[in-house]
Design a protein that fits this description.
The complex is a heterodimer of chains A (about 130) and B (about 280).
Chain A: E1 3-11, H1 14-30, H2 35-54, E2 59-68, E3 71-80, H3 88-92, H4 105-112, E4 115-121, E5 125-133
Antiparallel strand pairs in A: 1-2, 2-3, 3-5, 4-5
Chain B: H1 2-12, H2 14-27, H3 38-57, H4 70-86, H5 90-98, H6 101-111, H7 116-159, E1 164-167, E2 170-176, H8 181-198, E3 202-209, H9 215-230, E4 234-238, H10 242-251, E5 259-260, H11 264-274
Parallel strand pairs in B: 2-3, 3-4, 4-5
Antiparallel strand pairs in B: 1-2
The chains are: A alpha+beta (about 130), B alpha/beta (about 280).
Chain lengths: ~130, ~280
């Protein structure tokens, strides 16, 4: 899949989540996503960036602009070297949280985007990739 | 070894040194002649030079954090903060100390005409010393900028959470921007306070100005609503735009326990109705 452009943002504090949201929104606008799709991918990125910070202890967010034939897309990868997720199915289920949140973020983010993949190894870290196609 | 020579060199050639240094500063590229007068610059430079000479006389040319150097650091601090406020760039601010290098080098060269090795030794020490002072200038400069930013953030937190009274018994809280944890506690506090002050039974929280509503924002909203309810006030959340509504459905955020409206106007209408009031056109009365 041809990647046109990419950018890496660190997430170390709460303010960085705002930068991630703004960057994702900018790129979603660039590939001419509708307002609803923009909001969806920005919200998904916001959830995952916050998880990265709270549960992963911070990490990196990589943004990529994709072009496949006529359709454009935004792919966002969230990577941390945190404790990892022991049970991914459980983490994805609505209402489950290991922290103090609502337990809707991870599963919700999956429903908000077109492609969602998650790899996690306990003790090593977690990588989540989401893609929103126009 | 070198300290005594440097101190002597400075005290012998003080006036020349000062003149040359000030000249150097004025001629430097990007010097803001419009922001500072030559007389003021000369006075600042003279004072610094006196303190610098005193510190050099102590014999310690390595550790600028020692007591002997504290008057010098103090004067750099003042200057750096002052220039930061006046709108100097970091480079222009650092130039103050760094431009002392050239005239000092010239003085030392004259003093060590016959001993190039000694000259090089000494100039290395002096160079490092001035670099350290230059870096310290930058440190203070950035610190003073950061202080401004922190103060502005605090100002913004206060500014951004006005609770307005719409009608007897109805208050509204328009939220603009991101609703993070720090913001939420300020928002909640001022809302609850106003509910008590005005004796309101209905509070409208308007989120038209919140660009992204994710689960954390929703959680903060629900907590605020719950707290208001404990105080006997019902909340209406308004300003839910179509794209936000769709996103919230995907996130499975359940706001069914709270009355929600698309616009603040709708929310006000509902609030008035609950208070047994109705707005009608004057011709219909």
């Amino acid at each position: 899949m041809p990647v046109i452009n990419s950018e890496v943002l660190p997430v170390r504090r709460e303010g960085d989540i705002v930068s991630v949201r703004q960057a994702v929104r900018k790129w979603a606008v660039e590939i001419k996503c509708s307002l609803v799709d923009q909001t969806k991918v920005v919200t998904a990125a916001s959830e995952l960036a916050r998880n990265l910070l709270i549960y992963g202890g911070g990490g990196e967010v990589k943004l990529e602009k994709l072009q496949e034939g006529l359709r454009g897309g935004v792919r966002v990868t969230f990577e941390d070297q945190g404790p990892g997720i022991p049970d991914i199915q459980l983490a994805l289920s609505d209402g489950y949280t290991s922290g103090s949140g609502m337990g809707l973020g991870l599963g919700g983010a999956k429903r908000l985007v077109n492609d969602f993949s998650i790899e996690s190894e306990v003790g090593k870290g977690t990588r989540i990739t989401i893609t929103k196609w126009k | 070894m070198s300290s005594s020579v440097l101190a002597t060199v400075i005290s012998n050639g003080q006036e020349d040194l000062l003149k040359e240094w000030v000249q150097q500063q004025i001629q430097a590229e990007g010097m803001r002649r419009d922001l500072i007068k030559v007389e003021e610059l000369t006075a600042q430079s003279r004072e610094f030079l006196q303190r610098f000479q005193g510190a050099v006389g102590s014999g310690d040319l390595i550790n600028i954090r020692s007591i002997a150097w504290s008057p010098v650091l103090e004067s750099i601090s003042d200057l750096s903060r002052q220039r930061g406020r006046m709108g100097f760039t970091p480079t222009e601010t650092a130039l103050f100390v760094l431009s002392l290098k050239a005239p000092l080098t010239r003085l030392l060269r004259e003093a060590h005409k016959d001993d190039p090795i000694k000259f090089i030794d000494e100039i290395t020490v002096v160079g490092e010393l001035l670099d350290k002072l230059g870096l310290y200038t930058m440190e203070v400069f950035l610190q003073s900028r950061e202080e401004v930013i922190i103060r502005q953030q605090e100002d913004m937190l206060e500014l951004s959470t006005p609770v307005v009274k719409l009608w007897d018994g109805i208050v509204a809280l328009p939220i603009i921007g991101t609703l993070d944890s720090a913001r939420t506690s300020v928002v909640m506090e001022s809302l609850l306070q106003r509910i008590v002050e005005t004796g309101s039974e209905i509070a409208i929280i308007d989120i038209t100005g919140v660009p992204t509503v994710d689960t954390l924002v929703a959680q903060h909203l629900l907590k605020t609503v719950a707290a208001a309810r404990l105080m006997g006030a019902d909340c209406i959340i308004s300003g839910i735009r179509p794209q936000i509504a769709q996103t919230m459905v995907h996130l499975a955020i359940d706001l069914s326990a709270v009355t929600t409206k698309a616009t603040l106007a709708e929310a006000l209408k509902t609030a008035l109705q609950r208070n047994g009031m109705k707005v009608v056109s004057s011709s219909a009365v």
